[in-house]
Amino acid sequence: MIRVFLADDHALVLEGLRSLIEAEGDIEVVGTASDGDQVLDAVRALRPDVVVLDLQMPTVSGLECLQRIRAEGLPAKVLVLSAFYDGDTIQSALEAEADGFALKTEPPQQTVACIRQVYQGQLVFPQAARRWLRQQRHRPGPAADLSEREAEVLSLVAQGLTNTQIAQRLNVSENTVKFHLQNIYQKLGVSNRTEAAGIFFKQRQEGRR
């Protein structure tokens, strides 16, 4: 069972997601919260596998909750749930090491699918956010010492593609993708695809200033 904690300041969203998840055979809701203080206390106590986290939370914002979860080393995957998919919102979520990004405007069943994906270790973004990402691809690479192919792989990672999907997109083997990722991590000084994507967004933002 995937143990999920839901955090949103809208009761209808909480109850709607809870009802939908309870109908699934492989996911259970271990708790809910409507403000940031409740989120942090509950995640510490319940140790859920996945936290579905609204960025707009009272007392403590969802973004700050995410930052504290990471700072404390809590093992939960975090799926950000937002009504917005502008560049600043996506970048903020990535820089805070979110594992995925789901939109409230998408069908609720899509959020359930995202829960499964982030639990499996995938970096997840909705199609609307990916369209925004693709618009940024013409900009210079996020690190001067990345090769053209490495910059392309990193861009696809930031769009939420898996290694298999990247391999298919570039017509190379998965081992080749893994090789490029190892080089990217070393050059950027990071240890995983979430951190690499965060640098991608940060430097894209700096390039627009």
* SSE arrangement, N to C: EHEHEHEHEHHHHHH
Count of individual helical segments: 10
Question: What is the domain tally?
Answer: 2
Assembly status: single chain
Which whole number gives the mean pLDDT?
84
Helix content: 40-55%
Question: Would you give an account of this structure?
Answer:
The protein is built from ten helices and five strands. By secondary structure, it is an alpha/beta fold. The chain is globular and about 45 Å long. The protein has two domains: 2-126, Response regulator (Rossmann fold, 3-Layer(aba) Sandwich), CATH 3.40.50; 136-207, Orthogonal Bundle (Arc Repressor Mutant, subunit A). β3, α3 and β4 form a beta-alpha-beta unit. It has helices at residues 11-22, 36-46, 62-71, 87-95, 108-119, 127-135, 148-158, 163-170, 174-188, 193-207; strands at 2-7, 27-33, 50-54, 77-82, 100-103. A five-stranded parallel beta sheet has the order 2-1-3-4-5, with helices on both faces.
